[in-house]
Design goal:
Elements lengths: L1 E8 L5 H18 L3 E8 L6 E8 L2 H9 L1 H13 L5 E6 L13
Antiparallel strand pairs: 1-3, 1-4, 2-3
Helix pairs in contact: 1-3
């Protein structure tokens, strides 16, 4: 399984649009994509304009399917307007929990 951490900074005056778009992406990623096992959106406690995404995918094909999904296009369009600077991404491989039942869709 592959995990992605993404760090984004948003423009304060675009918060509502950002939240609407990323919620749409999150809901449809987990709900509509069999290969998306987790998609969490977190807000930094010290900086309300800083957000983190934690995503887990079954494999590389699932990541590619995510990027081709209609809800991802909604997110990309909003990101172009709402983000304050480039995203920071870290790619990882999951270690624990290792029980495949935990991930549900496998």
């Amino acid at each position: 399984m592959l995990a992605i951490f993404v760090k984004v900074r948003i423009k304060p005056d675009k918060r509502d649009k950002f939240l609407k778009a990323i919620e749409h992406d999150q809901i449809h990623s987990e709900g509509d994509e069999p290969g998306c096992l987790r998609f969490n959106v977190l807000q930094d406690q010290k900086d309300q304009n800083l957000y983190y995404f934690y995503e887990v995918y079954k494999d590389q094909a699932a990541i590619e399917a995510h990027r081709a999904a209609p809800h991802y296009a909604v997110w990309r369009e909003a990101a172009a307007e709402c983000l304050d600077g480039p995203t920071e991404r870290v790619d990882a491989t999951t270690v624990f929990p290792s029980d495949r039942k935990y991930w549900g869709k496998l």
